[in-house]
Amino acid sequence: MRSFALPRTTQIPTNGMMMTHAGFDRLAGRCTPIRIRWVLALFLCAWGAPPLGAQSRAANDSLFGVPVLTTMVSRPESELRAVVERYGADRTSLFRKYDAAGSPDQRARARRFFAGWAARLREIDFDKLGQEGRADYVLLSNELKHEVALIDRAAKEAREAAALLPFVDSLLAMQDARRRLETMNSPAAARTLARTAAIADSLRLVLEGRGASGAKGPDVTKVVAMQAAQRIEEVRNIMAGWYRFYDGYDPVFTWWTRDPWKKSEDALKAYTKAIRERVVGWREGTPEPIVGLPIGADGLKADLAYEMIPYTPEELIMIARQEQAWSFAEIKKASRQMGFGDDWHKAVEKVKQAYVEPGKQPDLIRDLAKRAEDFFRGKDYVTIPELADEDWRMEMLSPERQRVAPFFLGGEMILVAYPTDGMTEDEKQMSLRGNNPHFSNAVVFHELNPGHHLQGFMSARYNTHRRAFGTPFWNEGNALYWEMFLWDQGFHQTPEDKVGALVWRLHRSARIIFSLSFHLGKMTPAEAIDYLVENVGFERANAEGEVRRSFNGSYPPLYQMAYMIGGIQQRALRKELVDAGRMTNAQFHDSILRGGPMPVEIMRARLLNLPLTRDYTTKWKFAGQVSPVQ
After folding, report:
1. 355 contacts 421 by C-beta, under 8 angstroms
2. Are residues 28 and 97 in the same domain?
């Protein structure tokens, strides 16, 4: 950990004076607080720094990045803060104990846990809570319901794949028994492993067409088969830890299980390969197909209720098309300024050619970040603490991660995507073109300040308990909101920069359309890739990486639509508060960041002091009544 302590002897370069820590301590001991402040001011002047008052005013009232602490002493907080913190700690403990994902014990214990918390929450007198407490009550109640819904969804998925995975529960039950500290029954464990190997080999032979006469493989879709193959890999990893715990430490266990363990491992590997090749159609050595797992209309309805979005998937697609129509109109304006008429694809192609040479992308990102910082400096838009301006870092994305994240990412640090020497020539060209300066200019601040980096900085310091309620409609929506805000404030001056910004706006609209259409069963991953190429102007490899990222299980189903929809929500809320004169820009933006993550509808209820009820349900039509785009 880096230390910020002064050295034991501090040299003052202006006049050669030296003072030890002990000397300073003795001086401070003879001074009143007012005298200490004047002494510090004198030393700061000696070092060439401005007086304390000037230093504070110049940097958000901070002293070397340290805020004015007196403003934090009486900060009002939710009455339920301790309750939410306890929930988060208990949840972490529970799933640390029951670590066999989807095992019989974990499923049963998780249901009891969430039911118990829901019952205890009902015992709280809701009417005696203040607005912050009521917000936390609604948020926690919503979270508990969603956790049970996710258990139900996982159970449904397990039933669909059961014909391919008849051995999973018996394997995971052995890990559950280990966590219960039961005495090992080595002969029984050996029998379970041997039975697993026999079942896996039998199912593999059927898939390969070498089973008993007339035997047919399970009638499952490619989606279910891919899910089953991934599940086997998860279970194998869990059971590897189970085996390591006993192997060698219990000689009787090793004597009984070494041979059946190896056979079960070999059988499961071969069976997984057969599922992928025979059912999914994925040959070893070829790129992994994008299959995904559509959750259907019912799944979308449940997830939208959890995120407090009172629109149907079809209505949300219409909202996306409205945003898309605006972006098409604007990008054609910029295209005409560039001399390409209404052929905006040519304008996008010209912009892509402006990439910097390999090795120079970090310099570009640094300079673009500084440009955004300079734009915000001196404007009363949002509070960016001095340390938040200082502490972000930069790293490069690995070639492997760039396959699913073809553009840079951000948060605590900014992760830069750019070609490496090991990529093919086509891969290098697509990465160069997709990360050109004009595309990057529009989203550096999305990743850093005032976007994801500032979000993380603030949520680690204000209402930290609400990180339990994190949602992409808050964090991705807020970062996208800043893209809209800076467009409105004239941040993009050249038509090339406008094209870069509008490509991202088109991208976020397209995300809503292709992700919801996929989950409704109306668009395949291949069609989603084509849609991005045709309607956004992405390079095909970048479009493929985007679709793979959306459907490979790394993100929840609504994540990709949350950017634009969350941004529209926060823009609508700003209209109610800032445009109506109830708040300044800084008050509004600071309230969002300091309030902590949550569905935007509850953020609105907090800021407008709207009535919240114990059984609150979504009702805010932030985009008005939606009609099809003509």
Report:
1. no
2. no
Treating both helix axes as pointing N-terminal to C-terminal, what angle do 559-574 and 495-519 enclose, rounded to 10 degrees?
A: 120
Strands 9-11 and 18-20, bridge-based pairing: antiparallel
Long-range contacts for 330-337 (Cβ within 8 Å, ≥24 apart)? 330/498, 330/502, 330/505, 331/498, 331/499, 331/502, 331/503, 331/506, 333/498, 334/495, 334/496, 334/498, 334/499, 334/502, 335/495, 335/499, 337/495
> What letter represents residue 472's amino acid?
P
Torsional sign, CA 490, 496, 501, 506: positive
Q: What is the pLDDT of residues 342-397, one digit of tens each?
A: 999 999 999 999 988 888 888 998 999 999 999 998 899 999 999 999 999 888 88
List Cβ neighbours of 424 (8 Å cut-off, separation of 6 or more).
none
Give the structural domain span for 141: 81-162
233-277 pLDDT, tens per residue?
999 999 999 999 999 999 999 999 999 999 999 999 999 999 999
Give yes or no: residues 512 and 380 share one domain: yes
Number of residues in the chain: 630
Residue 200: both structure tokens together? 């896996």
Kindly state the DSSP code that residue 233 receives in the 8-state scheme: H
**For residue 9, which phi and psi values (nearest 5 degrees)?**
-125, 125
Structure tokens at 357: 């040479």
Considering the domain architecture, whether residues 141 and 187 belong to the same structural domain is answered as: no
User: Residue holding tokens 């300044």?
Assistant: 584
Which tokens in the block code for residue 30? 């003879």
Same domain, 391 and 529: yes
Same domain (yes/no): 384, 395: yes
SS3 state at 215: coil
Instruction: Please name the residue that has the structure tokens 């939410």.
Output: 84
Give the global pTM.
0.85
Give the position of tokens 């805010």: 620
Q: Other CB atoms closer than 10 Å to residue 379's CB: what's the count?
A: 10
- The residues near 7 (Cβ < 8 Å, ≥ 6 apart) are none
Based on the fold, state whether residues 493 and 586 are members of the same structural domain.
yes
> Which pair of structure tokens corresponds to residue 595?
């309030």
Contact by Cβ (8 Å): 279, 207: yes
What one-letter code names the amino acid at 544? E
Point out the least confidently predicted range of 58-62, 118-122, 230-234, 521-525.
58-62
Q: Are residues 451 and 525 in the same domain?
A: yes
> Within 13 Å, how many C-alpha atoms sit on residue 100's CB side?
28
The answer to whether the beta carbons of residues 475 and 597 sit under 8 Å apart is yes
Identify which has the larger pLDDT, 586 or 415.
586
**What is the distance between the alpha carbons of residues 598 and 561, in angstroms, rounded to a whole number?**
16
Using alpha carbons, select from 449, 287, 274 the residue that is nearest to residue 374. Answer: 449
Q: Are 270 and 229 in contact (CB under 8 A)?
A: no
CA-to-CA separations, 201 to 42, 160, 217, 262, in angstroms, rounded: 81, 21, 13, 13
Phi, psi of 468, rounded to the nearest 5 degrees: -65, -20
Name the token pair of 75: 């900060």
